[in-house]
Amino acid sequence: GPLLAIESSCDETAAAVIAADRSVLSSVVSSQAALHERFGGVVPEIASRAHVERILPVIREALAEANVTPTDLSAIAVVTHPGLVGSLLVGVTAAKTLAAVWDLPLIAVDHLRAHLYACRIAYGEEAFPACGLVVSGGHTNWYDCPDAVRATLIGSTIDDAAGEAFDKVARLLGLPYPGGPSVQQAAEHGDPTAVPLPRPMMNRPELAVSFSGLKTAVRYAALGNPNSPEVPAPPLGERRIADLAASFQAAAVDVLVGKCDLALKQTGRPTLLVGGGVAANRALRVGLTDLCERRGVRLCIAPMELCVDNAAMAGLAWESFERGEFAPLDCDVTPGLVRA
Ligand code: ATP
Ligand code: MG
Ligand code: FE
C-alpha cells in the first residue's frame, strides 16, 4: 500500500499519500501565512500551536482524498529535520503516535533532501544523476546527486539564504509577508536595470553566494546610505518600490544562475534539479531555463505546488523503505542542518 507523509518543519502543516511508484494520491497543505502576516515573519510559538490544531484534520483530509484507510498504508513518513524545533515536534509526535496505534513502520525524512526529491516526484527516475540546488527560506545549497539517495553538499550561501533575502527586502520595501511572492509581484511593474546593485561573489571561482551585502545595498538605495548622507535616496513611491524589487530580483537571479552554471561545470552532471520555495520565482525559472538550454542540460525544476513546503516531496521516504531503513519510535527531531 501507499505511505502517509507528514511535514510540519516551519509554517506549513502538510500531509500526503504517496504510492510506491511515487505517484501522489493526495497532497494537503495548510499554510499559516495569514497567522504570521502581521508579524512580518514566522512566530515559532504561533506556528507550533497552529500545527497542533491542524495536523489531524490535514492528515484526515489527505487520507480521505486519496481514498485510503490506515489499514491500506505501508508506512508513515515524517520530516524530522531541519526546521523549527516546536514545529517539527508536532508532526513527529503525530507520526509516532499513528505509527504505534496503526502498527506501521516509521521513516524519518530530511526536509532539504525532500525539497530535491520533489524533482524526482515530478520527473521520474531519470532525474538522476544530477546537480541539485535547494533554494528556500533557510537554505541555498548546491549538491552533487549521483542517485536518488546520495546528495553531497558542494556549495552554499555564506550568510543569508535566498528566500530570507527576498523576505527581508520585502519588509524594508513595505511589501506584505511572505516576501518572495510580493517582491516578485512588485517587480513585474518595475525596471530591473533602474537601480544598480552588486552581484556579490558572482565572478569568483568558488561555489558560494552571499545575499547579505545585496540586501544592504537595497536598503541604502531605498532608505539612504548612513555613510554618505549627502546623497539622499529618491522618495520611496510605488514606482521606486517596483524598480527596487525588480533590480533586487534581477541581481539575486543573476547570482543563482551564475553559480548553477559553475555547479554544472564542476559536477559535469547532465541534469539540474531545483527545489525549495524560491524555485517558484518566475524570473529564476526563466533564467535557469535559459542557462540549461545554453549548456544542453536537462532542467528538472519542481512544479509550483512542490516548491514551497509540502508533504508530497517526502515521498523520498520510499527510498528508505526500499532499503529497509526505518526510524525507532523514540527518534528525535534535529532542528539544525544535517550534513549529507
Ligand atoms: P527551508 O526549506 O530552508 O527549511 P522553508 O521551508 O521555510 O525553509 P520554503 O517553504 O521552502 O522555505 O520556502 C519559503 C521561502 O520561499 C520564503 O523565503 C519565500 O519568501 C520564498 N518564496 C516563495 N515564493 C517565492 C517567489 N515566487 N519568489 C521568491 N521567493 C519565493
Ligand atoms: Mg513556509
Ligand atoms: Fe522548505
Main sheet record? 6 strands, mixed
> Runs with pLDDT <50, length 5+?
none
N-to-C span = 29 Å
Strand content: 15-25%
What pattern of helices and strands is seen along the backbone? EEEHHEHEHEEEHHEHHEHEH
Which class do the helix and strand fractions yield?
alpha/beta
What's the gyration radius in Å? Answer: 20 Å
Residues in helices, as a percent range = 40-55%
Number of helices: 10
Total strand count, please?
11
What order do the strands of the largest sheet run in, or round the barrel if closed?
9-8-7-6-10-11
Protein name: tRNA N6-adenosine threonylcarbamoyltransferase
GO molecular function: iron ion binding; tRNA N(6)-L-threonylcarbamoyladenine synthase activity
Domain Gcp-like: 24-314
Family: Belongs to the KAE1 / TsaD family.
What does this structure look like?
This is tRNA N6-adenosine threonylcarbamoyltransferase. Belongs to the KAE1 / TsaD family. Residues 24-314 form the Gcp-like domain. Fe cation binds at residues 111, 115, 309. With 340 residues, the chain is of the alpha/beta class. It is 41% helix and 18% strand. It has ten helices and eleven strands. It has helices at 33-36, 44-66, 85-102, 111-123, 162-172, 179-187, 212-223, 238-267, 282-295, 317-323, and strands at 3-7, 12-18, 24-31, 75-81, 106-110, 130-135, 140-145, 152-157, 208-209, 271-275, 298-301. The strands form two sheets. Strands 9-8-7-6-10-11 form a six-stranded mixed sheet, with helices on both faces. A hairpin with a 6-residue loop joins strand 7 and strand 8. Helix 2 runs parallel beside helix 3 (85-102) and helix 5 packs antiparallel against helix 8. The longest helix is centred in the last third of the chain and has 30 residues, at 238-267. The relative contact order is 0.18. Residues 10-12, 309 line the site of magnesium ion. Fe (iii) ion is lined by residues 111, 115, 136, 276, 309.
